[in-house]
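Colleagues,

Please find the record for the two-part complex below.
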Amino acid sequence: MNNFVYINEVGPRDGLQNQKKHLDVESRVKLIRSLAQAGIPGIEVGSFVSPKAVPAMVGAKEIIQALNDIEYCDLSVLVPNMKGYELAIEAGAKMIAVVPSATETMNQKNINMSLEDTINNSCEILEAAKNNCSTRAYVSVAWECPYEGIVNETHVISIAEKLLHAGANELIFADTIGAANPSSVKSLLSKCVSEFGATNISAHFHDTRALALANVCAALETGVRKFDACIGGLGGCPFAPGAAGNLATEDVCNMLEQMGFKTNIDLDDLNAIVDMCSSDFDLNLGGRMTPWLRKSN
Amino acid sequence: MNNFVYINEVGPRDGLQNQKKHLDVESRVKLIRSLAQAGIPGIEVGSFVSPKAVPAMVGAKEIIQALNDIEYCDLSVLVPNMKGYELAIEAGAKMIAVVPSATETMNQKNINMSLEDTINNSCEILEAAKNNCSTRAYVSVAWECPYEGIVNETHVISIAEKLLHAGANELIFADTIGAANPSSVKSLLSKCVSEFGATNISAHFHDTRALALANVCAALETGVRKFDACIGGLGGCPFAPGAAGNLATEDVCNMLEQMGFKTNIDLDDLNAIVDMCSSDFDLNLGGRMTPWLRKSN
């Protein structure tokens, strides 16, 4: 069993997009550099979404360009459509992510498109990206949708299959509203692992019901070794009622190290970044670990 | 695999003993009645410790007597020594708990006794109780001691064996400072289950590193089906530096129900009790679930 767990930090995108306080480009570049220096192997640095819809994400191009010297960390950007994809490539992005949702209503509410169009749109981007950059493909609301309830596993797997067939280098199953539990995580991901292999699979958990860490443990048992996490447990999703707080990077790294897994991430550095988010950036943090524990470590 | 999980509520003892605000006997009786009415099958209602050492626990006798009409719930009291045991029996207690720690230093710091004397003392109480009441025997700091670090599994099992031999009806392995992780939980408890069977084994987790729910999942996989939990995640241990926040009853019940286990506990009732602890009793709560989720359910 592989002992290394790959953490993809989504704080600079998923974490910051929903904060009342917006960080300028310079602050986000500083945050991302600190995260990369702490040893995090992958970071989602921003998204090419409409500045009107998500004003906190303005400046993705400038961020990519300010970080183009970083070689040791996979820096990805979210692209919502072909236009966003083209802007990302133009800016020099080496890795992009598409984020279709698994249900009709969620896609309608989130991006005003049908499920079919959303999947086709994502597949077109993945096809176009084949010779230009690496690709990550999310399946959002993979367990439960705030509008449609429990999502059918076979349906989720069939979407994942299409995305993989279109060229996705990695599939990320996302519990967008934090409604999955260790049993449902094990059920879906074990099927995904036997269908697609564990290497290309990642999971993205929210901590709404305090189950994110337990869900990571359940996913580890299926063989999955890649997880999204978010410094300070920042975040939520502005378009998903019920989404609150991502899995905190410092919480999951601490758990993994205690369990004997390796992350290559420096926990002291992480804790210093959490403090920086709280003090310098005045962000509203959501991590679960007793704060004095972070400080005394 | 047995689908029913037995929750033993320790809020009125472990939860309240460390709060700045002390609840009077009447308030504690009100809290315990509400918990029993919510369907919780076991409640630790107090302890016969020195009122000087733990002033919040004054009135254990009055509490037992005020609750002597309750038949459908196992009400237990902690007894630190033979004197406490005798007072408990005199008061009419039907179930007592002894709480020896697994390490020399923890016993010295906690109750000023050697490890050997503590175990002998606990065994004497268990022997004396055989014809008088049911008994629960904890092994505190079963995974890690704040003074001695990681605790040897064979050592923990040998203590458990002595307690069982002396007549303990139930063994509770306690992660007193919240330092266990899902791997170490699975390791110790799977050995305990194969040694003693799952029926008599329970686990007590603290949430210091946000791992209590993940640790419950790990314990469930070993076959353990009994857990201590604490309404509102109250608590900690006044004598154990590093102990902070018990596993919250509402969090674990929500997780178990979502996973398809049965607890017989009414989640709406539990949430109302959490609100009561916060508003009427002005207690400092530590549960992990997003508060609005509790309210909207």
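Chain B has one domain: 6-296.

Comments are welcome before we finalize the supplementary table.
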